[in-house]
Amino acid sequence: MDETTASAPDDLVRRHAQPGRTLLAILHAIQDEAGFVPPAAVAPLSKALNLSRAEVHGVITYYHHFRTAPPAPVVVQLCRAEACRSMGSEALAQHAEAHTGCRFKQHGHASEHVHDHAGEVELESVYCLGQCALSPAMMINGTLHARVTPQKFDALLAKAMAAVVRTEEAV
Ligand code: FES
Asked: Which residue, of 44, 65, 78, 170, has the greatest Cβ tally within 10 A?
């Protein structure tokens, strides 16, 4: 995507801040299109919705779903909720950190997610992916995987990384 045109914050806000739309709906639409909510979108959003910048910023930071920086090429979302914990998701989290060299960032918030781009991979904690009977569960770039073992994780990650390389080569 050409960031100077299609995802320019002013353009994003102009396209998505339609009358009658809530701030949350607009933020979802912006993130769906751009992959994140650019910090520079806060000012035009506050103007478009007649809110203070602090109010807009507060909503973005309150909802862990919203990110303010582009995601890494491979995003791993590991379920850390109870059913998955009881089936070894914490050991899997440790394995994922050791294997990728990335860390699950600790926030005071119930959802921990890392946006530090320690490499090609981003590790994010999520709380229930609706696969409790098939735990531990995770998503890699939006694809659900169940009964994930460390070995299965390594294979899935290698596949996802290879897909990123293929995509980059095709560009
Ligand atoms: S608790 Fe992990 S999928 Fe529900």
From this structure: 78
Ligand 1 geometric centre to CA of 92 (Å) = 14
**What are the φ and ψ backbone dihedral angles of 98, each rounded to 5 degrees?**
-65, -40
The single residue listed with the structure tokens 């169940």 is 146
Strands 121-126 and 74-79: parallel
Residue 12: give the domain boundaries. 3-62
- CA 105 to ligand 1 centroid distance, Å: 20
34 lies in the same domain as 112: no
Residues 27-58: tens digit of each pLDDT: 999 999 998 999 999 999 999 999 999 999 99
Of 132, 138, 148, the one to substitute when testing ligand 1's pocket (max ligand atoms within 8 A of C-beta) is 132
- Residue 145 alpha carbon to ligand 1 centre in Å: 11
> In the structure encoding, which two tokens stand for residue 157, read together?
């990650």
How many CB atoms are located within 10 Å of the residue 151 CB? 9
CA pair distance 23, 164, nearest whole angstrom:
33
Helix (H) or strand (E) holding 90: helix 89-100
Q: Encode pLDDT of 76-113 as tens digits.
A: 999 999 999 999 999 999 999 999 988 986 543 434 44
Tokens linked to 161: 């990384």
